[in-house]
Write a structure and sequence with these properties.
Rossmann fold, OB fold (Dihydrolipoamide Acetyltransferase, E2P), binds guanosine-5'-triphosphate, single chain, alpha/beta, Ribonucleotide Reductase Protein R1, domain 1, binds magnesium ion, 3 domains, globular, two-stranded antiparallel sheet, 13 strands, 7 helices, binds zinc ion, 306 residues, 25% strand, five-stranded mixed beta barrel
Length: 306
């Protein structure tokens, strides 16, 4: 018997597949590991798979249907292997915090570049906004940076229930990936959106002000009437993969909007005279931190950085 379904939980050794409302625990066939993208995880949450039961009634995943899209990163700077965070998603929400912990802007930019490259709409959730009452300028500057780049930034506090209505609106009818550093409050948010879910959340370490990697496996939960939300383990670095230096600026929406005015059609927006992008940076129309990320990533052969 063969069933088709969506992978809703992936632990690396077994997979939970949702087939016609039924949850089936599956393993994967050895040879599946060899096919396709070289990645540390051959089957990921969001994958549409075929599974079959063997003579003993054990289920195995025997095929993965082509992915509509996915979010991929280099797993670490030492390894050449890639890690696919999730597949077949309608939107990625990157959860970021300005304190407890501090999310690096370059990390955000690398994540957004990957979303652009794989045509996944991205929304930024500025989380733990309750901790930022004393820092309205920092919040305003953050909004300015990313809204001028073309992204929606939603201020949220999962613990205080701020900003959740807009998040729920975006979730409706979609498969949404929730990603970000450890400890930014991804699982707390998912648990707040659907309090019937039993989701473990963690603390922030007192000495390092970082998360403790509480969520260890990616899980997709049904949400609202017709949506799904994917809670993922916190990630440290975001190494870019399959993104060419020459094309890098195509993944900055604000550069795309400006580059038509550059004097040279093949402008790299680094040193050329008559470059409209560098001009827009000088005028403050393009955020300096975004341009800085562009230059750093161009400079970084390995494309890996925190
Ligand atoms: N002040 C404040 N704290 C929050 C908020 N949301 C979450 N936290 C706290 O942040 C800590 C980490 O929350 P988690 O939801 O476990 O974070 P996570 O992003 O899922 O972390 P990983 O699973 O390790 O990736 C917990 O102590 C939460 O109580 C918020 O809106 N405001
Ligand atoms: Mg978590
Ligand atoms: Zn230019």
């Amino acid at each position: 018997m063969i069933n088709e379904g969506v992978v809703v939980r992936a632990t690396g050794s077994w997979y939970e597949v949702l087939c016609d409302g039924q949850r089936i625990n599956c393993r994967i066939r050895g040879k599946l590991r060899l096919k396709g993208v070289r990645s540390t995880n051959p089957v990921v949450v969001g994958d549409i798979v075929k599974c079959e039961s063997d003579a003993n009634g054990e289920w195995v995943i025997c095929d993965i249907l082509p992915r509509r899209n996915y979010i991929i990163r280099r797993a670490s700077n030492l390894s050449k292997e890639s890690h696919i965070i999730a597949a077949n998603i309608d939107r990625a929400m990157i959860v970021v915090t300005l304190i407890e912990p501090v999310t690096a802007l370059e990390f955000i930019d690398r994540f957004l570049i990957t979303c652009e490259a794989y045509k996944v709409p991205a929304t930024i959730l500025l989380a733990k906004i309750d901790l930022l009452a004393e820092a309205p300028e920092a919040v305003e500057a953050f909004h300015q940076t990313y809204q001028s780049a073309g992204y929606e930034v939603i201020d949220i506090s999962a613990t205080e229930g701020i900003g959740l209505e807009r998040v729920k609106e975006l979730l409706e009818g979609n498969v949404t990936l929730i990603s970000g550093n450890s400890g930014v409050g991804k699982s707390t948010l998912v648990g707040k959106i659907d309090p019937t879910l039993d989701i473990r959340t963690g603390e922030i370490s007192e000495s390092f002000h970082k998360g403790k990697h509480t969520t260890t496996f990616s899980t997709m939960y049904p949400i609202g009437n017709n949506g799904f939300i994917i809670d993922t383990p916190g990630i440290k670095g975001f190494g870019l993969i399959e993104i060419d230096d020459k094309e890098l600026w195509h993944y900055f929406p604000e550069m795309i909007a400006t580059a038509g005015e550059c004097r040279f059609y093949n402008c790299t927006h680094t040193h050329e005279p008559g470059c409209a992008v560098t001009e827009a940076v000088k005028e403050g129309k393009i955020a300096f931190s975004r341009y800085e990320s562009y230059l750093k990533i161009l400079d970084d052969d390995d494309k890996y950085r925190k």
